[in-house]
Amino acid sequence: NTMFSKKWKMKNFFKSFTNIFVISIALLFISSCQNNDKIILSDPLFSTESIENAGIDSIGFLMRKHVIVVTVKDKNEIHLYGAMDGKFKKSISREGAFPNGITVINDQFVLVTERDNKHVAVFNTSMEFLGSFGENELGSPYGISYYKVDDGKYKVFVTDSYEYNNPKQDRILSWDFSINDDTFAVSSASIFGNPTLYQVESIHVDKHFKTMLVAEEMEEHHKIMALDLETGQTKVDDLGDFNRGNDPEGIALVKNKDNTGYWICTEQSKTDNRFHLYDRQTLERISTMYLEDVSYTDGITTAYMHGNWYLYAVDNDKRVVAFQLPEIN
Prior knowledge:
Elements: H1 2-37, E1 38-41, E2 46-47, E3 56-62, E4 67-72, E5 77-82, E6 88-93, E7 99-105, E8 109-114, E9 119-124, E10 129-133, E11 141-150, E12 153-160, E13 172-180, E14 183-186, E15 190-191, E16 200-206, E17 211-216, E18 223-228, E19 234-236, E20 247-255, E21 261-268, E22 274-279, E23 285-291, E24 300-305, E25 308-315, E26 319-324
Parallel strand pairs: 1-23
Antiparallel strand pairs: 2-26, 3-4, 4-5, 5-6, 7-8, 8-9, 9-10, 11-12, 12-13, 13-14, 13-15, 16-17, 17-18, 18-19, 20-21, 21-22, 22-23, 24-25, 25-26
């Protein structure tokens, strides 16, 4: 009887231990899935001073100067802030221009789409105006991106939302942009691909994986579309997640030296502002990210400094908030 009792106790002990172990593993798995499904960033690096009725739209990054360049469309201005502390540097006035999208080429030229001027304005890093292009081809330019073709040679893409909300197959235009010392030259425009788009703004390209992401903002067609950077053909018609009536807005990319990384695509909302993360290569969904006390985000950009990736996001059209991004596998 004593022997039987001991065996029975040992059997129950191992059974209980096994149950606890299985439950623990299950809870860890569930917790891992939940953490992967939702990422919350709550400790900002900084936030810039709020500006009411500013219409802050898009953000560029000057690496050597550690400065972010921000378009302030409703005030027809471009603002510069410290990229690590958010301190205001200076403001550039662009009378009647309505500056929208922004990108920085070779850490040397700042390109800004100016909707009401119907062109792309080009500045040096001191924000001195150098010239423009696109006047003969653009109707209502919004987003802008580029990739490097060769030394001194780049391909620039601009989204054109002329005749708002009408289906068009010429919403994306491209130019060859070449650099010679401190001067630039551009080719005539070409139409990139022929996707049917209604209302386009944000655009971003990844040369390594030959991918272009474009945001379709017309409510009945909300989506992020992926195009092949070489052919213009559709890779993925709709990455998903933008089906709740909120605008797809800013698009940014985290790209590591080993060519891993992820896309960040903004779903603009006053009450449930979200950032969807997709694998850089496969375009499969990774997670959804939230920024604490940041809502109604328009433009975003990423920057790599001091061994870390940072995300800069527009908050409610009136300020920029910066966060250090976590490592995401």
